[in-house]
Amino acid sequence: MENKKPLLTVKNLKQHFRISKKYTVKAVNGVDFEIYPGETYGLVGESGSGKSTIGRSLIRLYEPTGGEIIFNDVDISGRLSEADRKHLRTNMQMIFQDPMASLNPRKKVMDIIAQGLDIHHMYSSAEERKELVYKILERVGLSREHANRYPHQFSGGQRQRIGIARALIMNPKLIIADEAISALDVSIQAQVVNLMKDIQRETNTAILFIAHDLSMVKYISDRIGVLHLGYLVETGTTDEIFSNPVHPYTRSLLSAIPHPNPVVEKERKSMTYDYGTSGIDYAKGIQQHVEGTHYVLAAGDEIRSWTNNGKKY
Amino acid sequence: MMMKKEKILAIKDLSISFQTSAGEVNAIRGVKLNLYKGETIAIVGESGSGKSVTMKAVMGILSSNGKVNSGTIDFTYHQGDEAVKVDILKLNKKQMRKSINGKRIAMIFQDPMTSLNPTMTIGAQIMEGMIWHYKTPREEAYKKAVNLLELVGITDAEKRMKNYPHQLSGGMRQRVVIAIALSCDPELLICDEPTTALDVTIQAKILELIKEIQEKTGISVIYITHDLGVVAKVADYVSVMYAGKIIEQGTVNDIFYDPRHPYTWGLLSAMPDIDTHDDKLYTIPGSPPNLLKKVEGDAFAPRNIFALNIDTREEPPMFKISDTHYAATWLLHEKAPKMDMPAELRTRIDRMLKEAEKDGK
Fold first, then answer.
1. Is the pTM of this model over 0.95?
2. Distance of residue A218 Cα from the nearest chain B Cα, in angstroms
């Protein structure tokens, strides 16, 4: 993986929102990470940590305040030329959390899925457009009859499949899945995750998987970034993070996952982490190397005190 | 022997249907449930399995197109030292509002933003119930509200009393909702997906909080959830619902270490745990049945790879496995062929048991 060229490189990305003259929300505060072709990068963190903001900045739903985003050798962080915009809008796609809110209720599934094709004139005849939609519908486990229905006629899991179909029809190199399965039932979640994994294997699409459900993130991701208050506090492969979490925030996050094992779970207490009283200042931290690809945001000696006195998770 | 447990809620043969434009939907088809004082029961199942509808019936807040066809919901509460038993289904709306809702049975909903009033301070919202139900003097209610806020872990309680919901974070809001629910000292607390809208870190805190309060006050709790991790953490007993029926019930250990119903197997297998390395997650094939149609035989049969011939013809009764453990599947019939749970689930349960043993030492 290391010698391959990254598909997406994010350098020092900043996204601030000015609420008033005196008050600016610094949602993302200098974040660096890379995504390689065909891999799944999991972004986890609590609400308000900036994980969705990063996804939205990448696909340029927001204007990034600072930093660089290089996607497929093109810098997409500044003003976009018409060609760059087209490149971005076709090669990067997004799947949203709530499939009911993200599908136009007044359009048929056929037109929802084909909208990207329509905008970018990616077919030569109406017949071809239809065929493309049918093909993608079957790919995501729906049938061609579904093309003439409206979103409200589908169940939650099926709607999310439509969302996936809409993203896939553009043959994207990167899909941003923003809490794409959080609103679904457990058994349906598993179906959608399996589908995403299958598709990834076939098409070698990279996925940025944004979620707060850590057991699912662990299952689907190759590498993980843990985000807190707009800083990436810990990054590494899934194994590195889960077997040896270093940052106290990561540890508290991992300790909070409920295990489906009643005897163990009844006794377990989750760890508390309070940034305000912890004495840690993220702004002073620098990315320090732990092992392999495992990095932690820490200032000075902090990392040593975390690894020494904290017991292993 | 232990003391005779006091039954607080007994649901018998509950059947509810909804009149819709497409026809009559039989959402609840004969639910039986018992809850004893101080215990926690978790009701799990997919969306549409009827778990929320059952609890709405207990609260008397079914939507207007809902109709109770049969059954009783006996609720026992205490007035002074005297135990009063009522059938909730026989009370009218006014009586429910006056003597049950919020006063003796309180409910916590999924989304704390929509269950709080955005135009009232949280202090006023906590005091409201006490003043309305018990005619508590304002000053006393204020004191109790501050205490409740402290109980649910909100610092600077006095200052927070003047805050409006939008000034609080999601976790704080849910704490306020819990404080409101506890304000009238209810005997039964119903939590409908109380943490689904919250982050894992806050979820853990809220669940621990409800548990602590339960130890202090001895109230009974019903959880409605589809998160099996949550169930493992909080529940004493588990009822698994499918298509408007309880298809397996038992202690939390019965369900997690010795599940018998194929649907329960599926639910347990579908959830990835921290140690899952399988290439593919297990999924339950198909989708839940359409309850507009009359269910023939076992409702789960079409999705059940273990289905027997009889499953398509006759609905299985509840088979007794132990004093606490029951399941409705023909596989438990003495003449049924012996079927084991899927191998992956077996290894997972074995691993969990090992962990549990290690933990016990």
1. no
2. 7
